[in-house]
Amino acid sequence: MIVTIDGVAASGKSSVSSGVAQALGVPYVSSGLLYRAATLLGLEANLDLHDAPQLLTLLGTRPVHLEPLAGGNRVWQAGRELTDELHSTRVDRGVSVVAALPEVRAWVDAQLRALPEPFVAEGRDMGTNVFPHASHKFYLTASARIRAERRARERPEDVPAIEAALQRRDELDTVQSAPAPDALVIDTGPLDLQGVIDTILTRLR
Ligand code: C5P
Fold this sequence. Notes:
Blueprint: E1 2-7, H1 13-24, E2 28-30, H2 31-44, H3 52-61, E3 64-67, E4 74-77, E5 80-81, H4 89-99, H5 102-113, E6 119-123, H6 126-130, E7 136-141, H7 144-152, H8 159-173, E8 184-187, H9 193-204
Parallel strand pairs: 1-6, 1-7, 2-6, 7-8
Antiparallel strand pairs: 3-4, 4-5
Helix pairs in contact: 1-9, 2-4, 2-5, 3-5, 4-8, 7-8
The chain binds cytidine-5'-monophosphate (C5P).
């Protein structure tokens, strides 16, 4: 069994997926962390983030490992844990460029498809490209302002700056982020975290 939860940036996908996964007693898989890890390693190596061959060579020599758990995912590069470094503003700025590279998408997809079921998969294209045969699919949305207000509680930046960055990332992510035709689209604007989780669990039951 695979449940997919896709959605726009900062729509609450990780927290919702974690809550749903814990209720189901299965791990959740955060695909965005693999794109973020590729971006971080590329930045650290001073690579041009548009240069797919160089990035793939780097990722080949420095393999990244995603550890899916119900409570939160961890990402490793050899013995080094990358998890806490993956949500910086600099990774946020570069990740859409890296995620637009077909070679990087294939690198991520291969890792995701090798994971043992069952799990909840969270990202942009889980229900469309990676797991089109998933048993249940959801897509989370909310206005850019509401998402920015939520994010401002986690980061020392003001709401307009976050909102502008989110809108920029939405535009860059348009190609890889669309609801599957058979996904239930949930506007999380009027709901709190538990409300979104309950909406999904009700549907699953
Ligand atoms: O979900 P999160 O914000 O961590 O994702 C970071 C970035 O990774 C997104 O902005 C998007 O560019 C990319 N991504 C993607 N496809 C996915 C998951 C994430 O293109 N399935």
